Hints:
Layout: H1 2-13, H2 34-47, H3 54-64, E1 82-84, E2 94-95, H4 98-108, H5 110-120, H6 122-132, H7 137-167, H8 171-200, H9 209-219, H10 229-239, H11 244-278, H12 280-308, H13 311-329
Antiparallel strand pairs: 1-2
Helix pairs in contact: 1-11, 2-3, 2-12, 3-4, 4-11, 5-11, 5-12, 6-7, 7-9, 7-11, 8-10, 8-13, 9-10, 10-11, 11-12
Amino acid sequence: MFLLYTIAALISVQAGPTTTPAIQSVLPAAELSVTNAVVLGVVEGVTEFLPISSTGHLIIATHFLGLESDRPLVDNKGQALWYRAPSPKHPAGIPLTVKLAADTYNVVIQFGAIAAVALLYWTQLISILRGLIGREPSGLRLFQHLIIAFVPAAALGFLLHDWIDAHLFSIPAVIAAQVAGAGLMFYAEAWRRRHRSAQNSSAPIELTSRQAAGIGALQCLALWPGTSRSMTTIVGGYFCGLEPRRAAEFSFLLGFVTLSAATVYKSYKSGAAMLQVFGWSHVALGAVVAAITAAVSVRFLVNWLTRHGLSAFAWYRLGVAALLTVLLAGGFLQ
């Protein structure tokens, strides 16, 4: 996983006008403490697969850790460091900042969560590989359904990436998404309970391509920070008739595909800039912590959903939204 990241970062260094030789400096331009790296790793690992939004919690954590500075950074000679150097497309250039690096860091340490899913669900991934070489039809069907579910959010995210970064990475946006997501979860849980007797009396439901596309369409909602990719895909599984365990497992595997693509893309686009600001060692530390905590969270979620469903997480989201609203109104957040 880290080999992929390193390759992506190196490509980004040589990506033409988006970077400058200053980005290639080996000395960090700003300090990310071990504590900060561990905190962000824990937040990422715990929240990535729980239906409470990892992005929303990372935005909050980044705020309280003081990693939101938009002050342009300079090297040890006082020269400006550029994310995008001045060019005809960007006449003023885009300076390198701690906020830009922190936003990228929060995406790149998802490699840890990806690794956790790979370790926990390696049999399904092997089944997919066997399907791709024509030895296991069920693995090929799973692969096809994952790709169908992946495409809608991938396409929309690619088109709206810069707009989302500019307009939706804020505390008010997270509050709105937490409340809306809680409402959707309450509705989905009530819907599942109404249909539970019919599901229990029939054979296990197999996804169709149309249902996989429906889950993919719901995953598009997770492009709004604070919504939760895990939540939207589990809810989508509910509406397709999957029992909670299977809905969660499909969500995890879809997350493996989606997070891999998003992390490689973000590494390619901003990875070298992040390394310039924070250095590589804290990236590795955050990803390792995320891997450990994500593995624990995945096991916890499967067991919890089987026994209790989604309602507790919906109430948690409302509690987070209420707390953030109070802090925002009191001037503690901006």
